[in-house]
Write a sequence for this structure.
């Protein structure tokens, strides 16, 4: 293990993603680097622009601050996440569910260490940049002191700045804020993952260009339209819709694996229950069953997600069905074999583009299975029959109806009053979660807002619990933004002790789990942990390098600073402080925060724990007042020789020069000294 040579070697940071990206580029294309190991810009330019396209002729998407925001996305962070037990709900049942209160860019960097490529779906509903919405100013990155002063007493929280359209950097500030977070979040998506971004007309073109750059235009999957409301006071058109832009992490990978997204038709279970009851009452009187079924269909409004089932208007012993399905070959030039009508024995009319099925044998196979219906004679082209109860899934449409007032009313029921304006409907997000992910997978929202995404995940889990499926998990990040107490909703929120948006997020998810309203329906066996973005537990992170000194001189100064500032930790830490140390060190070493910690009694002279998060394991000794003893080194050697090949995490201050050399020689890269 080499001696520290840079400041970052001594600081408890997350991985430096810039170095990782360069290392990966060098691994793939070593010819782009000089003999000294530096990237050669000329070689890179020859690769991407062999014809030396002149700068003025190149199409680019530029704005003030773009380069800086891109750099900021990949710089490491020294911050940490601190567990907030008091605001957590059923933490022993959280199973990875987290709500994180804090600035989201730094939080994303922290999550990258342990959750890289672990997230199946990222959904965000960022500020829309209307000139009135508040936007994140990266006040953590640019003015850390101000951020900690604002959040040091969580009662007040962070006051975000407005972004008036009179500002000369109206678009630039918003673009920079979004770009850095998109870039940081991409690494969290698994290779088969999806990103979904809600946006309105104002910044939809710019958001699309941002996503095309960050995720690749070739990975754009769909642009969904959500009709929210009609504005009768509009002068020209009622623009009451929003968009959801859907991108894949790797669309080619999805194609290669023949991925097909399908959603269960809403209302099928309800219709099945009704049909079973009617069949019990009427037997084979399918006319009576059909009459009552059609009466039920009339109660379903046009914007109801159950509307699709109303197309199944005929009934027989197999339940509701439709027999008007298209039997044409998709496109043109389909097979044109002869099919004789079962009654007239004459050749049937051939569909305009040919038969849907490649061979005559396949046609009769489908007919014998009850999936093809003939007309009264050969002059009518046969059609495809679909039984509702046999095919209860569907591809999701690109246009949806979800009225904003309905979403607000549903949200208001949770609190008995309005404490948040313009929430997304949790059922819309539940539908997306079910469509894009599978039970047991992780969903992330780093613009948490009112907590609609977490609510949607919980409802998806509720629906799947009867089938014995593993629950999906959620991570929601929300800055402790101060609510506008001058608005009706903000005043209501403050009156019930919810002064920040993050506090609303947490309380909303708590009420969903515990049940709310006149007919509470709690969700059993689930919970979540609350964490807060906080300063590192290591005082060394407060060190400010002297720009007048060399790197070597600053490293030496930092080493002296560490010895002086961290000497106070020789005293025993209380349980909460010890937990905070473990959380910070293990998170930055790549362990997810739902890890378990078990005392290893075979280590007799040091306090050593077995750590596991279900994906990986390590031994850890993080006691501030313990140096690593010879007996611990001996036990590690015994485990190594027995084939266990242990990983070991300890504090740098716990190692003497000799012990560090011996451990490094024994464990190599399996040793991490913090």
């Amino acid at each position: 293990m080499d001696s520290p040579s840079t400041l970052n070697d001594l600081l408890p940071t997350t991985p430096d993603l810039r170095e990782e990206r360069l290392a990966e580029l060098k691994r793939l294309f070593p010819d782009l680097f000089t003999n000294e190991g530096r990237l050669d810009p000329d070689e890179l330019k020859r690769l991407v622009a062999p014809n030396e396209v002149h700068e003025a002729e190149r199409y680019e998407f530029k704005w003030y601050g773009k380069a800086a925001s891109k750099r900021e996305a990949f710089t490491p962070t020294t911050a940490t996440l601190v567990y907030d037990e008091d605001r957590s709900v059923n933490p022993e049942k959280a199973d990875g569910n987290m709500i994180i209160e804090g600035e989201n860019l730094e939080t994303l960097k922290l999550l990258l260490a342990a959750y890289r490529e672990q997230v199946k779906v990222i959904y965000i509903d960022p500020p829309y940049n209307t000139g009135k919405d508040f936007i994140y100013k990266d006040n953590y990155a640019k003015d850390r002191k101000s951020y900690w002063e604002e959040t040091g007493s969580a009662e007040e929280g962070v006051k975000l700045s407005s972004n008036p359209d009179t500002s000369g950097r109206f678009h630039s500030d918003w673009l920079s804020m979004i770009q850095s977070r998109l870039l940081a979040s991409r690494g969290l998506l698994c290779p088969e993952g999806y990103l979904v971004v809600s946006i309105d007309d104002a910044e939809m073109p710019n958001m699309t260009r941002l996503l095309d750059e960050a995720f690749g235009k070739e990975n754009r999957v769909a642009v969904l339209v959500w009709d929210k409301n009609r504005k009768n006071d509009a002068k020209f058109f009622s623009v009451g819709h929003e968009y959801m832009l859907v991108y894949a992490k790797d669309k080619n990978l999805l194609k290669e694996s023949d991925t097909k997204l399908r959603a269960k038709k809403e209302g099928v279970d309800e219709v099945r229950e009704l049909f079973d009851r009617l069949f019990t009452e009427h037997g084979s009187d399918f006319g009576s069953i059909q009459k009552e079924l059609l009466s039920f269909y009339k109660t379903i409004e046009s914007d109801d997600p159950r509307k699709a089932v109303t197309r199944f208007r005929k009934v027989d012993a197999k339940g509701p069905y439709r027999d008007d399905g298209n039997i044409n070959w998709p496109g043109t030039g389909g097979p044109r074999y002869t099919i004789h009508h079962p009654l007239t024995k004459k050749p049937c009319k051939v569909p305009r583009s040919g038969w849907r099925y490649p061979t005559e044998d396949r046609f009769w196979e489908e007919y014998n299975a009850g999936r093809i219906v003939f007309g009264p004679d050969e002059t009518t082209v046969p059609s495809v029959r679909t039984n509702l109860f046999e095919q209860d899934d569907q591809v999701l449409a690109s246009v949806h109806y979800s009225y904003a007032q309905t979403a607000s009313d549903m949200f208001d029921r949770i609190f008995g009053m309005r404490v948040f304006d313009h929430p997304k409907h949790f059922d819309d997000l539940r539908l997306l979660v079910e469509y894009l992910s599978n039970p047991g997978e992780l969903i992330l929202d780093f613009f948490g807002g009112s907590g609609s995404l977490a609510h949607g995940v919980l409802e998806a889990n509720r629906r799947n619990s009867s089938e014995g499926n593993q629950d999906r998990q959620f991570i929601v990040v929300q800055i402790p933004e101060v609510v506008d107490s001058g608005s009706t909703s903000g005043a209501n929120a403050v009156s019930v002790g919810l002064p920040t948006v993050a506090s609303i997020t947490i309380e909303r998810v708590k009420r969903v789990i515990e049940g709310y309203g006149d007919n509470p329906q709690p969700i059993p066996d689930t919970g979540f942990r609350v964490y807060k973005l906080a300063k590192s537990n290591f005082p060394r992170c407060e060190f400010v390098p002297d720009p007048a000194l060399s790197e070597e001189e600053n490293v030496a100064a930092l080493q002296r600073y560490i010895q002086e500032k961290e000497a106070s930790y020789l005293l025993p830490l209380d349980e909460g402080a010890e937990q905070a140390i473990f959380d910070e060190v293990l998170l930055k070493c790549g362990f997810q925060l739902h890890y378990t910690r078990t005392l290893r009694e075979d280590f007799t002279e040091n306090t050593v724990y077995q750590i596991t998060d279900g994906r990986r394991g390590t031994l850890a000794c993080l006691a501030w007042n313990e140096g690593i003893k010879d007996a611990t080194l001996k036990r590690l050697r015994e485990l190594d020789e027995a084939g266990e090949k242990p990983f070991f995490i300890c504090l740098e201050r716990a190692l003497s020069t000799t012990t560090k050399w011996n451990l490094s020689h024994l464990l190599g890269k399996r040793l991490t000294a913090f």
User: Anything to note?
Assistant: The domain at 80-262+395-534 is CATH 3.40.50.150 (Rossmann fold). The first strand starts at residue 80 and ends at 89.
